[in-house]
């Protein structure tokens, strides 16, 4: 049971083990508490993989926006239609920007 889901009255500020135990017993008896799922290591590994993939996809999208902004700032237009095709990537590798620092 998640401790944050245990119902508590506003005037019950004093915390003792005895009161907590009695409150838990009453709540369990009246079925006010809901059980929580503790994830297995496999579940956590999948969640970590998913979060990492989402972060990588977000970073990729931001990098694409930055590249487009740099090209627009230098008034360089892409003649192709797709932004991440092989033809477009080849065009980017052959592109020479006006200043060496760019």
From TrEMBL:
Which segments of the protein form a coiled coil according to its record?
none
Q: Give GO BP annotations, semicolon-separated.
A: DNA transposition
Annotated Transposase IS110-like N-terminal domain residues: 11-72
Q: Write one Pfam family the protein is assigned to.
A: DEDD_Tnp_IS110
Naturally occurring in which organism (per UniProt): Alteromonas mediterranea (strain DSM 17117 / CIP 110805 / LMG 28347 / Deep ecotype)
Question: What Gene Ontology molecular-function terms does this entry list?
Answer: DNA binding; transposase activity
Q: What is this protein called?
A: Transposase IS110-like N-terminal domain-containing protein
**Which spans are transmembrane here?**
none
What the entry lists under InterPro entries is as follows: Transp_IS110-like_N
């Amino acid at each position: 049971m998640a401790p944050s889901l245990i119902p508590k009255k506003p005037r019950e500020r004093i915390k003792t083990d005895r009161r907590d135990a009695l409150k838990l017993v009453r709540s369990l008896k009246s079925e006010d508490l809901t059980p929580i799922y503790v994830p297995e290591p496999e579940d956590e590994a999948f969640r970590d993989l998913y979060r990492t993939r989402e972060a990588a996809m977000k970073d990729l999208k931001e990098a694409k926006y930055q590249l487009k902004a740099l090209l627009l700032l230098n008034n360089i237009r892409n003649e192709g239609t797709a932004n991440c095709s092989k033809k477009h990537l080849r065009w980017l590798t052959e592109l020479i920007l006006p200043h060496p620092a760019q």
